[in-house]
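Example for tutorial group B:
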């Protein structure tokens, strides 16, 4: 599931303190704690914007040092998506990033001003269509001399089409040298005026802040001569498209560290997923799974409006959650004994089945009449979806006493993402029969 805004300006998710750069990136690659390693940053999130929102912006994340929701104080930075009102100009029609250092200097170079990303015009992010958004500042070592450029990209999850744009000028040197510039503080905007507030229906999932460089395409130009663009193959892999293996943020960082990304014309760089909140729900999705400790987002309701934040459907592709839980099938899918609903139930034996799961994945199971049964396709009474037990972090199990007969089909699924499902057919329940030469075999038949 994803987290969705249910009321305008009522609630936000915020860290206890601002995440700052913490390093002079202009010098970091030559000396200091990041020598020869990583510098720069990028952020990512799966986004779904609401419909009927002409003329308004969708706030995603940022640093609001003044806690006003207006994003005008020093050290403020934000990511927002315009709502598409032509009368308001390009500011309301494209994703935008704005940042300031010491309250006066634009984070990015050029004359972007309030538009943030100078010279960048993105196609409008489609309303109510799940989209992967990425934005950051990357060190381009393949240029001579090397440069820092900011960029933004998105890919629609219905088509896999990628749009990306790179600033026409270098990132502001004052900001690069700063060790206190804010990178992240809150998700959604609860207060402020105008387009600062996040609109009802905006949903977000898998928000991450990475230290380091996003993989860069050194050959394909995105409108800035000789610079290239964030690598579209890597973006597609995160979104579950393309011919290359699909990736999560953690997979991408691991491949960069190993230098194994299989893309042509690629400056692989290095990155580390410092912060990653899945935002799958308001209980377990707010704890950081990245390398920067256990920073947890806290939900704050400023004006006591009912609704606040709630859960919405998943947006991230299936590979983000480790795939479907697996079923470990025995050699013979047979349960001897009388069965739980048959006469002489004292002879019944429970069906014990186990399987694999992704760590932390909640698994549900149900039993359905299988092909060949008069009620094929319907749920066995009393055995609809219910939680399976989790004996270990990587396994699940179920123990059910089924009625005599069959065949049955066992189905298991990820409780949070029901589309991640597996099944096992041809289970039988009954009494033991012995056959010549097969004294150890158990056999059952449908006796309805």
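The residue assignment follows.
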């Amino acid at each position: 599931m994803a987290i969705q805004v249910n009321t305008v300006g009522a609630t936000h998710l915020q860290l206890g303190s601002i995440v700052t750069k913490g390093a002079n990136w202009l010098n970091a690659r030559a000396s200091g704690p990041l020598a020869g390693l990583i510098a720069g940053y990028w952020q990512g999130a799966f986004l779904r914007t609401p419909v009927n929102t002409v003329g308004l912006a969708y706030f995603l994340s940022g640093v609001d040092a003044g806690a006003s929701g207006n994003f005008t104080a020093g050290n403020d930075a934000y990511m927002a998506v315009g709502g598409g009102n032509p009368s308001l100009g390009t500011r309301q029609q494209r994703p935008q990033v704005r940042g300031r250092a010491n309250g006066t200097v634009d984070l990015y170079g050029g004359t972007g001003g309030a538009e943030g990303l100078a010279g960048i015009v993105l196609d409008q992010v489609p309303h109510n269509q799940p989209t992967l958004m990425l934005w950051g500042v990357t060190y381009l070592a393949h240029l001579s001399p090397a440069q820092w450029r900011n960029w933004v990209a998105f890919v629609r999850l219905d088509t896999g089409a990628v749009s990306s744009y790179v600033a026409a000028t270098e990132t502001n040197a004052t900001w690069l040298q700063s060790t206190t510039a804010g990178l992240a503080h809150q998700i959604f905007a609860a207060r402020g005026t105008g387009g600062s507030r996040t609109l009802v229906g905006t949903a977000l999932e898998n928000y991450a802040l990475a230290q380091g460089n996003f993989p860069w395409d050194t050959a394909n130009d995105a409108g800035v001569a000789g610079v290239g663009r964030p690598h579209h193959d890597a973006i597609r892999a995160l979104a579950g498209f393309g011919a290359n293996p699909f990736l999560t943020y953690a997979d991408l960082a691991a491949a960069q560290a190993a230098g194994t990304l299989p893309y042509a014309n690629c400056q692989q760089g290095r990155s580390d997923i410092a912060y990653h909140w899945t935002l799958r729900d308001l209980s377990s999705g707010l704890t950081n799974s990245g390398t920067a400790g256990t920073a947890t987002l806290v939900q704050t309701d400023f004006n006591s409006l009912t609704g606040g934040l709630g859960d919405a459907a998943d947006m991230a592709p299936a590979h983000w959650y480790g795939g479907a839980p697996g079923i470990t099938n025995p050699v013979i899918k047979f349960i001897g004994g009388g069965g739980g609903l048959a006469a002489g139930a004292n002879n019944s034996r429970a069906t014990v089945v186990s399987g694999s799961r992704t760590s932390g994945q909640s698994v549900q199971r149900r039993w359905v009449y299988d092909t060949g049964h008069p009620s094929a396709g319907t749920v066995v009474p009393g055995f609809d979806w219910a939680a399976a037990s989790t004996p270990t972090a990587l396994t699940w199990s179920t123990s059910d006493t089924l009625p005599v007969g069959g065949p049955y089909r066992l189905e298991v699924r990820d409780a949070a993402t029901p589309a991640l499902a597996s099944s096992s057919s041809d289970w039988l329940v009954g009494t033991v029969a012995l056959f010549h030469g097969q004294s150890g075999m158990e056999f059952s038949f449908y006796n309805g």
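Residues 84-93, 108-121, 339-346, 432-448 have pLDDT under 50 and may be disordered. Compare this with the pattern of hydrophobic and polar residues in the output above.
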